[in-house]
Design brief:
single chain; 258 residues; alpha/beta; Rossmann fold; binds adenosine-5'-triphosphate
């Protein structure tokens, strides 16, 4: 399996705070990685550096072997890196299909004057296909601002997929989603991205979600990668439990039947 992203020796300081302190991470092609860490551990800074929103002070980021440090977010998006934010970035007064049609018109083929060369009918065909992939057909004509949060998250991620990315970064895909909906929302996201062969890295504080959907988990603490490995290894690691999950590591007391 080849790495799609290779982040090497990334350092980022904000004044006295070191938000990335020699971060080395490979993201393997076609895998789902969960990124965990306490508040301020450097998760968003890491994603911001890979997506071009922040430049590292030093270090290198390779996308399929090509350096992307110094490129703008737009250039990095064009090379196949997409992201969704914790708060969905939707046009709240437009319907689900209109939001997707707009995304297709902005991302798809454009003519000499920079406008979409697809007709409204063609845009609607693409948008309807994407709604189906994400199980959003029933919300086709719903106004985005009135939809439940789980549906808004799905629509936002569906829009991030419009440009056919190779890697997708998701910031807390289940935050704000009702607990009874969180698994169905994640099932949809993971099914859609696996079918498309997209590598995913998602930031998540819900350890049930992390355990269930990650092929591999990265644990950040104070700007460093504390541990990186399979979910069962990382989530049962003593330091991860103490420092990140917030449970004290208790050695079970021996039963004394005497
Ligand atoms: N633009 C900035 N200016 C100054 N300090 C910043 C900036 N961005 C991040 N930081 C600091 O860098 C550290 C890492 O922040 P970051 O947002 O990457 O953490 P995080 O793991 O994403 O946290 P959270 O889970 O709360 O989103 C924090 O101490 C934060 O205050």
């Amino acid at each position: 399996m080849k790495p799609i992203i290779e982040a090497k020796s990334l350092v980022k300081r904000f004044g006295a705070v070191t938000a990335a302190n020699d971060v080395n991470v490979d993201i393997m092609s076609g895998t789902i990685s969960g990124l965990i860490g306490t508040n301020g551990a450097g998760k968003t800074t890491f994603i911001n550096m890979i997506t071009g929103y922040l430049g590292p002070d030093s270090g290198s980021i390779l996308l399929e072997g090509q350096e992307i440090v110094g490129l703008s977010p737009r250039q990095i998006t064009r090379r196949g890196v997409a992201r969704s934010f914790q708060i969905p970035q939707l046009f709240n007064s437009l319907t689900a299909i209109e939001n997707l049609m707009f995304a297709y018109s902005a991302t798809g083929s454009v003519g000499a004057k920079g406008f979409s060369i697809l007709s409204d009918d063609e845009l609607a065909i693409h948008a309807d296909e994407t709604l189906e992939v994400f199980g959003l057909g029933a919300f086709r004509n719903s106004i985005a601002g009135t939809m439940p949060e789980g549906i808004r998250k799905l629509l936002d991620i569906a829009i991030a997929m419009v440009g056919k990315p190779k890697v997708l970064f998701l910031d807390e895909p289940t935050s704000g989603v009702a607990s009874e909906e969180k698994f169905s929302v994640m099932d949809r996201i993971i099914d859609a991205t696996r079918v498309a062969g997209v590598s995913v890295l998602f930031v998540e504080h819900d350890m049930e979600i992390v355990r269930r959907y990650s092929d591999r988990v990265l644990a950040f603490f104070e700007g460093r990668v504390l541990i990186d490995g399979p979910p069962e290894t990382v989530l049962s690691d003593r330091q991860v439990r103490e420092l990140i999950i917030g449970e004290e590591h208790r050695v079970p007391k021996e039963d004394n039947h005497a």
